Amino acid sequence: MTDATTEAAPLLKEIFNQDRLNHFARETTAICPTFDGERFLALAADGLDGLSIMQRLRQIAVSFHAVLPGGFEKNIEILRTLAPRINHGFASITLPEYVALYGQDHFDLSMEALAFFTRFGSSEFAIRHFLQKDLARTVEVMKGWSTDENEHVRRLASEGCRPRLPWSFQLKPLIVDPSPVSPILENLKSDPSLYVRKSVANHLNDITKDHPEWVLEKLETWDQTDARTGWIMKQALRTLIKKGDTRALHVFGAGHKADVEVEAFSVTPSALKLGGAVKITAKLASTASKEQKLLIDYAVHYVKKTGGTSKKVFKWKELTLAPGATVELAISRAIRDFTTRIHYAGRHPVDLVVNGEVLATEAFDLTT
Questions:
Q1: For residue 170, how many other CB atoms are within 10 A of its CB?
Q2: Does residue 218 contact residue 173 with C-beta atoms inside 8 Å?
Q3: What is the largest CA-CA distance in the chain?
């Protein structure tokens, strides 16, 4: 385990530390004098050190329920007043979690509460419990959210129903059939907010893992000359493009075989120790009689613990190359351990990929 891994997990958990619990207790008591802050702290802090960030979030919501003085309707009023007083965006996600746990029998009120709370953090995890219980009814509400004037609410419309949302459970019915959320994605395809567009792109990229043809059919009808829509399309198809999917490449005019000659391709140094960097350079010359669109990537075949390799494709350059023209590219890549990748000694092939086709391969040897 690297130092980065050792440090990152507790830092993330500390969003919900003792100071944050004290803050919750203090602010809630200021709103509701009958709130028993001491009991809340005892419940919320129980076994805190051994809990993950999501477990802490849920325990705080459960503790609120145990101590707040009213029923769901009354308690939501108190929590709505509390929301703008919470001093950290992610920490406020405990309020939507309360709705997910205790609002299932109060659908309309819960939908209103989630749309309100998402402005302060996000209700993306909480809404999934309602989608799981009643998909059609909840999606209908989220269609309305997709045209809301508030960007946080519009983003929730897309992010909350992603079939494979990180840190949450999968929505199996939407993995099988994504069509119920199609109107939401259509409404947001040229959204003015980058925050929203990122969610739409990630949502579509999720779907490409199960239904690439469904996504491609949709995107082929979109206007990529619209800068906002075009950005979403590129990000949505990133996984398919890295795989060299011909139809995805065609969407951006790069589905043809590249008419180029590789005049040079190098990876230097040819041998290095962990912690260093390699420089990748390429020179391409057009052999075409007309200009051509090129999507240029490079792929590193990382050595695995078992001795085999696993390919990772990286975006490099997108360009239009004139007939007879040449282009020179260079990029440096650090070879060091991250929380998401551990390196192992051995030979690492590096491919030059143009329009989904490997045109040249070099390699470097790594010692750790």
A1: 14
A2: no
A3: 80
**Using an 8 Å Cβ cutoff, are 122 and 96 in contact?**
yes
Q: What is the pLDDT of residue 11?
A: 63
Token pair recorded at residue 206: 């999720």
Tell me, what's the pLDDT at 57? 95
State the Cα torsion 82-84-86-92 to the nearest 10°. 90
Distance from C-alpha of 282 to C-alpha of 303, rounded to nearest angstrom? 23
Pairwise CA distance, residues 311 & 314, whole Å: 10
CATH superfamily of 3-251: ARM repeat domains (1.25.40.290)
How many other C-beta atoms are found inside a 10 Å radius of the C-beta of residue 299?
19
Q: Where in the chain is the domain with CATH 1.25.40.290?
A: 3-251
The Cα 64–Cα 29 span in angstroms is: 12
Average pLDDT across each block of 10 residues of the chain; the chain has 368 residues. List them in order.
38 89 98 96 96 95 96 97 95 97 98 98 97 98 98 98 96 98 98 98 97 97 96 96 93 92 98 96 97 96 95 94 97 92 96 96 96
Q: Which residues contact 137 (CB under 8 A, 6 or more apart)?
A: 107
Q: What is the pLDDT of residue 183?
A: 98
Provide the residue type at 246 as one letter.
Answer: T
CATH code, residues 260-367: 2.60.40.10
Ramachandran quadrant class, 178 (left: phi over 0; alpha: psi -120 to 50; beta: rest): alpha
Helices 107-117 and 72-82: crossing angle, nearest 10°? 10
Range(s) within the chain of domains with CATH label 2.60.40.10? 260-367
Nearest-CA neighbor of 218 among 172, 176, 186? 186
DSSP 314: E
Burial class (CB in 10 A: 0-12, 13-18, 19+), 334: exposed
Give the phi and the psi of residue 155 in degrees, each rounded to 5.
Answer: -65, -40
